[in-house]
Structure formats: structure tokens, C-alpha cells
């Protein structure tokens, strides 16, 4: 199995995920990982972030993003994990890891996966700020970031 895709409530251990990527074989000369954290841009006002998804649909969308990356770059193991439920500032929220023979492909594929995940994965976010909850709109910067991968 070269792809591992998880959507889960539980926290994850980035070191264990990196080890899974390493176990994919000696042909990988590079492993690139990204761990996203819940950030509080409001200097302590963010009390929590709630992530909702459609089971099955979300995993299929993530698998499709991985397939797109595999069509662009020669990749070994690929791991995508995204958390759902209530998270606190500083919690792990997303992990993307890519193994490849060369560093350039690994870096590019990891960036591609994050850009497309932010644009295409069906997650809905709600913030709790000072006791008030509101759904978060998708950021235009996330939509724009994915455009850099469009080819003519």
C-alpha cells in the first residue's frame, strides 16, 4: 500500500507518519512532510475550531488529489491525514507526507497536495470566538494558491 489517507478525530504523531513514509523502500531519496496546526490569529480570542466533513466523500476527494499528484510526479508513499471535530489552538490539524526519489519532486508534490486539499477537499470549518460560533468562508488566497499548478 503506497497511499494512506485518514480523516479522524484523534490526534496524530507526525514522527510515526514519517516513519511509515520511510518504510516504503530504499528507492526514496527524499521525504517531505507538512504538519498544519490550528492557529489563533486573534491573540487568544479563538476558543476552538470545529471541522465537519461528509464521510466517504471526503476520503474520495483526498484520494483523487493524491492520484493527481501521482500523475505529475514519480512518488513513493504518500500520506494525507486531516482531523475533524473540535480542535484547540496549537492542535495538529493536517499532515501531508510524500516520499520520492528526488527532493524537487517531493517538495513540489507536497505543496501541490496542500494547495489542492485547501481548495478541493470537502471540509467545513466553524470558529468559536469569545463564545460566538460562525462558519468560516473559504479563503481566496487558498483558491489562488492552487492556480499555480494549472498547465496550458
Automatic annotation (TrEMBL):
EC numbers: 2.8.1.12
Keyword entries, A-Z: Molybdenum cofactor biosynthesis, Transferase
Pfam family, one: MoaE
GO MF term (any one): molybdopterin synthase activity
Superkingdom field: Bacteria
Classification via PANTHER family: MOLYBDOPTERIN SYNTHASE RELATED (PTHR23404)
Name of the molecule in the record: Molybdopterin synthase catalytic subunit MoaE
Organism: Marinobacterium weihaiense
Lineage, top ranks: Bacteria, Pseudomonadati, Pseudomonadota, Gammaproteobacteria, Oceanospirillales
Gene name as annotated: moaE
